[in-house]
Structures are given as C-alpha cells and as structure tokens.
Write a structure and sequence with these properties.
MetI-like fold; 0% strand; 209 residues; mainly alpha; elongated; 12 helices
C-alpha cells in the first residue's frame, strides 16, 4: 500500500515493486477530490470517543461483576455471554430507527454509543479482575476509602496492562468500523476514513495511485 501510494495506477497495474515519485501528486489529487481532512477528524473523534467511554463503562462493569456479590450476578453474566453471539447486523435496523427518532443521524453520537458497552470488554475486565487481590479492597475500606477512590487509586493502576490491551482493541475496531457508520452517516461531509477509501473506488475503474 505504501509503495502503491508513490506510483500511478498504470505503474501499480504493471506490477511495479519499487517506490515511485508521485507521492505528492497522489495526495494532492486525493485532497482535491475527497474531504480527507474531515474524514481523518471524524475517524479520530469516533475512535477516541469510543475508546474512552468504552474503557470507563466496561471497566466499572467488569470490576463490579467480580468484586460485588449478588444473586443476579451470574444470571446477568450469562445474558452478556448470550449477547456476544448476537450479530450486529441483527440489531442494526432497530438501532437506526431509534437514532433516527432521536434525530442523531449523521452524528458521531450515533456511531459511538452502540460500541461503548460491548460484552467482550466487560468479560475481559471481569476475567482480569479475578487476579486482583480482594484483601486490598477490604483494607482500603477499613482505611475509610470510598468505592470510587478504591477503583481510581488502587484498581486502575494495578490493571494498567488490561486497560492498555482493551484500549488498543477498541481503538482499532472503532477506526476500522465501516458497516455501521456507512448506515448511520448519510452525509458525506461526516464520513470516516474507511468510508472515504470505499468511495475512492470508482464505478468501473479504481485509482490505485
């Protein structure tokens, strides 16, 4: 892909393997025909917003599932595991109707909200929380720390590796997300990078440069 960006379409189709000299020309052509800046902005906005909110919500949920004990905890976890098996395409039409009724079509909120509470991340944090020593929590409570302080000052620093892994997974998934933004973002002015790359492909000819 990097080498192709420096060559013309004819050179790419000719199986040229070496870098060319048309990198600036290709980017100028792209910037003049496609809203490259806005696509990068909306992709970054959606990815960063999704990652931040997903980490906050799913880490608290995973922490709560492991630390607090209720009769309904195992039942709720079973429901979450079943939710993992439901394909997103099965919920796409109801989601679109809901966001359309709320007037959120062509909004980043409609892209971010469905992805901030994924069952996979909740399960990831719950499994990681099993290695978290509960004695520390009890000691912190005896010292007078509130639950939020325990989470922020003790749990969060201890689980840095889990947060890092979840952040990478969520950011990459949000950045590469194509189907749902293609459905909910009708206006090309708010399109993301995957949508822009798809639109670059013409009806019969693809510009490989």
């Amino acid at each position: 892909m990097a080498v192709s960006a420096t060559n013309t379409s004819q050179e790419v189709l000719g199986s040229k393997l070496l870098p060319g000299t048309h990198l600036l020309e290709n980017f100028e052509a792209l910037a003049s025909t496609q809203p490259l800046g806005s696509a990068l902005w909306y992709s970054a906005l959606n990815a960063v917003g999704t990652t931040f909110l997903a980490l906050v919500i799913t880490s608290i949920a995973g922490y709560g599932f492991e630390v607090y004990h209720t009769k309904a905890k195992d039942w709720l976890m079973g429901v979450l595991l079943l939710a993992i098996m439901i394909p997103f395409a099965a919920t796409m039409i109801p989601l679109f109707q809901m966001f359309a009724d709320l007037g959120l079509v062509n909004s980043s909120f409609a892209v971010i909200l469905p992805a901030i509470s994924t069952p996979f991340l909740i399960l990831l944090f719950r499994q990681a929380s099993r290695s978290f020593p509960h004695d520390i929590i009890e000691a912190a409570r005896l010292d007078g720390l509130r639950e939020l302080s325990i989470f922020l000052r003790i749990y969060l620093p201890t689980m840095k590796s889990t947060f890092a892994a979840a952040a990478v997974i969520t950011f990459m998934a949000a950045w590469n997300n194509f189907l749902w933004p293609k459905v909910i973002l009708v206006d090309n002015a708010v399109q993301t990078m995957p949508m822009l790359l798809s639109n670059i492909r013409a009806g019969y000819v693809t510009d490989y440069g």
